[in-house]
Design goal:
Order of helices and strands: EEHEHEHHHH
Oligomer: single chain
Structural class: mainly alpha
Shape: flat
Radius of gyration: 17 Å
Helix content: 40-55%
Distance between the termini: 45 Å
Number of strands: 4
Largest sheet: 2 strands, antiparallel
Number of helices: 6
Strand content: 5-15%
């Protein structure tokens, strides 16, 4: 097997059995789906073949538009609570965006501590930040 000098990171998520996430941190491709790690739901997806896999009707979409499309396709198979949770996340953004929103540009230690204390409370009470 030839050696590839590009670094590839692999993380195992312990929240779901046998679920792995592969991300090429060094990718500079504009159409790379891994851009969602950097840009969240605002990431622009223009890989038509990838979008077709999800039965997306267009050739371009933001990640948020694709998630909205997927939710619409499966909402009737989910509980009302699951749909509400997913819609909340679509409306309020990724967890990192919600954290940034609550920080309001204040990245000092006390502000970070307060937001992450609230996040801890949310985790303890099984609610969304």
């Amino acid at each position: 097997m030839p050696y590839d000098a590009n670094m590839l990171f692999v993380c195992k998520y312990y929240m779901a059995k046998d679920h792995w996430q592969i991300y090429n941190w060094g990718s500079r491709k504009k159409n790379d789906v891994s851009g969602t790690f950097r840009e969240g739901e605002e990431a622009r997806l223009s890989d038509a073949a990838f979008l077709r896999l999800w039965h997306y009707p267009g050739k371009r979409a933001t990640a948020g538009e694709l998630w909205q499309h997927l939710l619409e396709r499966v909402a009737d198979r989910l509980s009302a609570e699951q749909v509400t949770t997913l819609r909340y996340q679509l409306y309020h953004g990724t967890l990192s965006q919600r954290i940034l929103s609550q920080l309001k540009g204040d990245f000092r230690r006390p502000a970070l501590h307060e937001v992450y204390r609230r996040l801890g409370d949310c985790l303890q009470s099984n609610t969304l930040l």
